[in-house]
Amino acid sequence: MALSVAAALVFGALWAGSWISTTVSPPHRQFNDFTVGRLMDLCGYKVDMRHAGGGYDLGRWRGTRCDALSELDHCVLKCLSVAGTIEIGAACFSDCVIE
């Protein structure tokens, strides 16, 4: 009898713990309007518009400039397209210059 009560209590505690952990767990890592800004197509690279706040003039990679991108431009645009935060994006230019 005591063993079955102990087993029931352990099961209840584990069930309650799993319910609590799924209730308070963060949402899936999907991009939405709150985690990502609007994306721009800059010369074939999808860049978050919020990187303009990191000091980049995103308009300079539009129009005819796409026809003659330098290696530095490609590096910066590639870095900005995968940068998750503005702080990481702000370091893209200096990282590309070092490369």
How are the SSEs placed, and which strands pair?
Elements: H1 2-24, E1 39-42, E2 45-48, H2 71-82, H3 86-90, H4 92-98
Antiparallel strand pairs: 1-2
Helix pairs in contact: 2-4
Offer a few descriptive terms.
two-stranded antiparallel ribbon, 99 residues, mainly alpha, 2 strands, 4 helices
Q: How would you describe this protein?
A:
The structure is a single chain. The model has no long low-confidence stretch (mean pLDDT 80). Helix 2 (71-82) packs across helix 4 (92-98). This protein has helices at residues 2-24, 71-82, 86-90, 92-98; strands spanning 39-42, 45-48. The protein has a two-stranded antiparallel sheet with strand order 1-2. By secondary structure, it is mainly alpha-helical. The chain is 47% helix and 8% strand. It has a domain at 39-98. The chain is rod-shaped and about 80 Å long. The longest helix is centred in the first third of the chain and has 23 residues, at 2-24. A hairpin with a 2-residue loop joins strand 1 (39-42) and strand 2 (45-48). It has 4 helices and 2 strands.
